[in-house]
Amino acid sequence: MRFVLRILKALALLLVLLVITAAGWLSLRPPELLRVGDGYAAKIVCSNVFIAGRGAEDVLHDDVQAPGNPLLRLVRVSVDRDNDRVTARFMGLFAPSYALYRGAFGCTSVPDGNFEAAANAAPFDLPAKMQANDALWPEGEGIDNPADGKVASLLADAGVAGPAMRAIVVVRNGRIAAEAYGPGFSAKTPLIGWSMTKTVNAAVLGRLMLGGKISFDDDNLLAQWKNDARARIKVSDLLGMESGLAFNEDYGDVADVTRMLFLDPDMVSLPANAPMEAAPGQRFRYSSGTAVLLSRIWMDRVGNAQAAFSYPHDALFSPLGMTSAVFELDARGTFAGSSYLYATAHDWARFGQFLLQDGVWNGQRLLPEGFVGAMRTPTAASNGRYTQGQAWLAPGGPSAAFGLPEDTFWLTGHDGQSVAIVPSANLVVVRLGLTPSRLDYQPQVLLKAILAALPQPGGPQQQAGSQRQTQPQP
Q1: What's the CA gap between 433 and 410, in Å, rounded?
Q2: Residue 18 has pLDDT above 50, yes or no
Q3: N or C terminus of the chain: which is more exposed, having fewer CB within 10 Å?
Q4: pTM for the structure as a whole
């Protein structure tokens, strides 16, 4: 009996030692996967609490834990409203990561815990936002007619709208024809676009092109590329995701993209130091790092830091009336042009309508002639899937395969975000949600159903809608 007790005591002691060793290891050298998970949780909770006004525990459960890696279910978060910070820890103890709210610039990951540097990286305040008004959309938030009954019934069909839909807005002939929202969400809720941000970031760059400060053919884009092959990379190569730079966009593990977003306070560093794996223009590689590089490049071309920080607001959001738009920065002051734009569904629809109108708004050309055309022109290296302007032609397959008009092009983002633009039908469809790719939802199903339900061109309802239209068309 004594022998058995000794064995049990030895095993208990061994177990205690293992627990202490594991705790010490997790405290001193936590695996990158845990740091990424905590960084993701802190950032998502921070943005949704401070920008969208949602509850921290709801966001942690619904946005972070439910659709993600099972390890995320062990993450705990705390919100420090006095200091505008969110902290996430694995099991409430290990691998702490942080996010900081910086007012009009939203939240940023602060993986190094250097809050002073993160605060000082965005020292300027944006101009006061315009307030939404009751004028008819897109001039305001008003809707001038009851929703189209057929379309409204489609949006209520979960099989068409898709799992965990949060917002759908259908714009026909320049006016909102129907909209729907998931439980807890409304037309006033800012929602993340994820990679739809890339297309908005490209449009910001396009505004600079109109002023002659940058062009598609510019090369020698970063000082550190001056003396090597990367100096030959052009703006057009970056816009088309054909830079030739190596970048791992695999979200299933710790990869370049997750390191950039959640482990590095300076998001520019990783893609700017990436090696060449192909000559510019020869290989398509979807890369969030490319979009961050474009942010850094256009910010450097604006002229001064304060003007660069306010440029998206002054040049794009304010003219379009996107009163809810929050374009977030990294911890060192570069716009996260790959991923982090929050806006209401109405404002995402404004941006889609802006592209449908060929970059013209209220009679004023805001994008150069041909810029939206580049967004609709496929690149050869992508086999016709991606375009020359950070947009998609065939995100889930060619339009013809889904029975959609050939001129359809798309903004798409992680977890089921999409804006479909169909110039021939004078149609924009925004769909936002929390729909992981493993669910195999395709927004083409929604778009096809809406097209089938809408009045055909030339019908009386179509003509009436055209008469009400206030925005110029391409």
Answers
A1: 16
A2: no
A3: N
A4: 0.91
